[in-house]
């Protein structure tokens, strides 16, 4: 194997075939491995440089974190437009219910279908990478994986408007995950100095045009997205720390905190401006979206046992949810890979199914008299509200339609409320749980921007309130608090986060007295769910084939050393190299890093000078800083170059080898590589444990790790380790006998 970059092929005799079978999901017996990365059989993938981005197969690379604040105003657009369209759609629903119900259904389903088709068309034809929540992609990017168009301006555009149309179309999805992706896209746009393609450039941002600073900006952007979505600034910081970022440092803590503080101030200002009702439903509830602060929280031993029960149920249901999402995503991949038209048709089919369920299920629910003291609010006719009359007589409401034919925020508010424990019948809560649980699984994976937070909160809140109703005679906790604990348990069971979810829920509900119970239920649900599978975002990263590096080494790596997973022949350059040799190497390979060797007469013996990156070599060749003699002239190159010449280019802007025009005479000339060589690369001995090398590689955020010989008298470098050399598919492909599953 040639280890000079992230784009090497596997050339080890006997290991390539096992590796190809594993990475394509085909087992030794010819069957398809269900837990393998989601790559279809007809896709040629002989390397680990391919992953699923959106529904497309795209090449991926690693980021260069080694050295050689996001303003959230955009999030208001997503909030305001989504809520405004929701309000128009909901008012239309009420009006339709006054006419013939058969016509009302077609009007209701037609509106949803148009909005769904618009969202699907944007994703299918403009930016496939915008489909889904985007959190797995952001998490992979912050781990050092650069995949095409994950954070492109077109992805940002589709993410914003696709989320607006998708949420307004009545799908069981949320806007919270897409807003995390939106914040990351905005941060990336700032980090690359804007976009030349769309004539949006800012020269003062060129200082951030390196992977390390861009990584910090995108971390701040992800935190800003959570803070804006949940109005939880502290929760946003903790989400970035616990779930999104792979590397953390003290300076990044205050930067993300500053970013989310700006989010809170801007949101507060916009909410105050919108109190007159000019912004639709935006700003309802202020900074506290679901206020359940109902006074003292008293609980006894039976209540603690009920909380433990909720945690166990949440863990089991959460792990089952992840398993079913896995199956659905793999099934949809077979449809989506057939083309954009099939993606749109799949979205349309799910939209019709969602409309049929949302409009049809309330017919089997009984009408309920309006609660005492709710005059003027029940039923809510001609406006948004939590008491929907549907087909009921005056002073009655349909409790199931109040959940199904409502905004997600109002539905959660209804479930969290403590006004009346009999507000929702037990049968209604059971039907709504099944509806949200099943449709949440079916909807995630279609070609629209879709978040998982809201479906999971809705499902958890419904079964939590159901448990509260059943335990009402023996419990001191009201049903609203049970609903909150149910949402926490299901969140913990699916996403496997603890600290950040706890703080987000407390900021959402303004009930600090529930802190001990929320902590307990999150810990129990996560522990139970971890016994079955991984968190949903980790699971999706694996399915997409993204080479994510965990913060720990696999146990079997302790039986191997660094030289076991590197192979030759190794392509390297001399410090003063012929232009034709460099051009040929760049033309014939797609490697991104090349060792540079100091050789006589410049040194007494061969020694490793460092690593030269492909992008820097292209800049050097483009400048034609050549010499006819094989001598060192690095000082002249340094005087003629500027630091910004070697800054990381934005998406699709970098130099390509085909862009260079070099004459035959120049091919015979020489170039000094020392000025562009990283002369202090990280190196390890060839006898270092592969487990230690993996931990070092991950903790330092490396792209290349040089392996040097232990004994003198040999070539100065044995090979180069990249993240793909640590992937289980590669290691176990070379050494299948150490596979723990066998």
UniProtKB/TrEMBL annotation:
Residues 676-740 form the CBS domain. It is found in: Membrane. It comes from Brassica cretica (Mustard). One of its GO terms (molecular function) is voltage-gated chloride channel activity. This is Chloride channel protein. Belongs to the chloride channel (TC 2.A.49) family. Gene3D superfamilies: CBS-domain, Clc chloride channel. Signal peptide: none annotated.
């Amino acid at each position: 194997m040639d280890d000079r970059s992230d784009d090497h092929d596997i050339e080890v005799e006997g290991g390539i075939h096992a590796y190809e079978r594993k990475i394509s999901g085909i087992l030794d017996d010819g069957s398809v491995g269900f837990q393998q990365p989601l790559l279809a059989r007809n896709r040629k993938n002989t390397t680990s440089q391919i992953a699923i981005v959106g529904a497309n197969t795209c090449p991926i690379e690693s980021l260069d974190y080694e050295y050689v604040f996001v303003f959230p105003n955009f999030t208001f657009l997503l909030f305001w437009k989504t809520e405004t369209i929701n309000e128009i759609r909901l008012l239309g629903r009420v009006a339709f219910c006054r006419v013939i119900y058969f016509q009302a259904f077609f009007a209701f389903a037609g509106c949803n279908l148009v909005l769904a088709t618009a969202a699907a068309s944007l994703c299918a034809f403009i930016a496939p990478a915008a489909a889904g929540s985007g959190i797995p992609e952001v998490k992979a990017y912050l781990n050092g994986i650069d995949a095409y168009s994950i954070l492109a301006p077109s992805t940002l555009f589709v993410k914003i408007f696709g989320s607006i149309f998708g949420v307004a179309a009545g799908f069981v999805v949320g806007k919270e995950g897409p807003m995390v992706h939106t914040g990351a896209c905005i941060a990336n746009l700032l980090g690359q100095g804007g976009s030349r393609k769309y004539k949006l450039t800012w020269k003062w941002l060129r200082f951030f045009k390196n992977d390390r600073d861009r990584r910090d900006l995108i971390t701040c952007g992800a935190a800003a997205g959570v803070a804006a979505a949940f109005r939880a600034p502290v929760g946003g910081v903790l989400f970035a720390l616990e779930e999104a970022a792979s590397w953390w440092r003290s300076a990044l803590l205050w930067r993300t905190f500053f970013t989310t503080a700006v989010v809170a101030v801007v949101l507060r200002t916009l909410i105050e401006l919108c109190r007159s009702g000019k912004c639709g439903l935006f700003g309802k509830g202020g900074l506290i979206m679901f206020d359940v602060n109902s006074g003292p929280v008293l609980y006894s031993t039976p209540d603690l046992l009920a909380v433990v029960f909720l945690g166990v149920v949440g863990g089991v249901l959460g792990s089952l949810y992840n398993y079913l999402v896995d199956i659905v995503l793999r099934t949809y991949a077979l449809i989506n890979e057939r083309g954009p038209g099939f993606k749109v048709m799949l979205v349309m089919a799910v939209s019709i199914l969602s409309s049929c369920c949302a409009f049809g299920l309330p017919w089997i629910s009984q009408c309920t008299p309006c609660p005492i003291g709710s005059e003027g609010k029940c039923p809510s006719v001609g406006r948004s509200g939590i008491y929907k009359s549907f087909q009921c007589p005056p002073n009655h409401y349909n409790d199931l339609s109040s959940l199904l034919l409502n905004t997600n925020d109002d539905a959660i508010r209804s479930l969290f409320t403590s006004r009346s424990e009999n507000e929702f019948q037990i049968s209604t809560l059971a039907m709504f749980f099944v509806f949200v649980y099943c449709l949440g699984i079916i909807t995630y994976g279609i070609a629209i921007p879709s978040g998982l937070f809201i479906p999971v909160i809705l499902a958890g809140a419904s079964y939590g309130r159901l448990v509260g109703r059943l335990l009402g005679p023996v419990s001191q906790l009201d049903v609203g608090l049970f609903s909150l604990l149910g949402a926490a348990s299901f969140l913990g069971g699916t996403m496997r986060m603890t600290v950040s979810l706890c703080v987000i829920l407390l900021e959402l509900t303004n009930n600090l007295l529930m802190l001990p119970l929320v902590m307990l239920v999150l810990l129990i649900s996560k522990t139970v769910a971890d016994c079955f599978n991984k968190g949903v975002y980790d699971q999706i990263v694996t399915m997409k084939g993204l080479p994510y590096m965990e913060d720990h080494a696999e146990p079997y790596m302790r039986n191997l050393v660094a030289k076991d997973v590197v192979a030759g022949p190794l392509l390297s350059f001399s410090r003063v190299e012929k232009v034709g040799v460099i051009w040929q190497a760049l033309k014939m390979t797609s490697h991104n890093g090349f060792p540079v060797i100091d050789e006589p007469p410049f040194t007494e013996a061969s020694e490793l000078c460092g690593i030269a990156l492909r992008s820097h070599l292209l800049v050097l060749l483009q400048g034609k800083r050549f010499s006819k003699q094989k001598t060192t002239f690095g000082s002249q190159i340094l005087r003629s170059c500027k630091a910004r010449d070697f800054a990381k280019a934005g998406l699709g802007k970098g130099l390509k080898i085909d862009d260079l025009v070099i004459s035959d005479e120049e091919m015979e000339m020489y170039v000094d590589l020392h000025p562009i060589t990283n002369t202090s690369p990280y190196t390890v001995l060839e006898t270092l444990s592969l487990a230690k090398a993996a931990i070092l590689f991950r903790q330092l955020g490396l792209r290349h790790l040089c392996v040097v010989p232990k004994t003198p008298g040999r070539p100065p470098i044995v090979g180069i380790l990249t993240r793909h050399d640590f992937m289980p598919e590669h290691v176990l492909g070379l050494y299948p006998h150490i596979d723990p599953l066998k």
